[in-house]
């Protein structure tokens, strides 16, 4: 008695040949590379965000004119720091770090 469908090796071989044919067809002999099947498409929002990040990183983030004026005042001995303002800023910074999001 013959039972059909017991030879699963034929199915495996057929699947292997099909995958191998697809791999060979995606090979570009001129470049020696396989064609890529994966693609990434960025949304318009992500492209705009990337542009803004690039723009911000290109801008100078330091106010060099203010730094130069403070340096000059220090060299001249005319730079004065208000102890009250300094203490308030230190306390506010500590409070911001310990309680983020609260005002």
Topology:
Elements: H1 8-25, E1 27-28, E2 33-34, H2 44-58, H3 64-76, H4 83-98
Antiparallel strand pairs: 1-2
Task: Kindly describe this structure.
The protein has about 100 residues and is mostly helical. The model has no long low-confidence stretch (mean pLDDT about 80). The protein has a domain at about 50-100. It is about 60% helix and about 5% strand. The longest helix has 18 residues, at about 10-25. The N and C termini lie far apart (about 85 Å).
What is the alpha-carbon Rg in Å?
A: 34 Å
- Specify the overall morphology: elongated
Strand content: under 5%
Distance between the termini: 86 Å
Mean pLDDT over the full residue set: 78
Strand order of the largest sheet: 1-2
- Helix/strand-derived category reads mainly alpha
How many DSSP H or I helices?
A: 4
Helix content: 55-70%
The ordered H/E elements are HEEHHH
Number of E-state strands: 2
Largest sheet: 2 strands, antiparallel
């Amino acid at each position: 008695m013959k039972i059909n469908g017991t030879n699963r090796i034929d199915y495996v071989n057929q699947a292997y040949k099909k995958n191998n044919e697809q791999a060979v067809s995606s090979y570009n002999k001129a470049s020696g590379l396989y064609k890529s099947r994966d693609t990434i498409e960025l949304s318009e929002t992500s492209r705009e965000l990337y542009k803004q990040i690039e723009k911000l990183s290109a801008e100078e983030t330091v106010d060099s004119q203010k730094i130069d004026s403070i340096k000059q005042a220090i060299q001249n001995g005319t730079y004065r720091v208000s102890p009250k303002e300094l203490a308030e800023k230190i306390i506010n910074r500590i409070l911001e770090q310990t309680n983020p999001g609260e005002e």
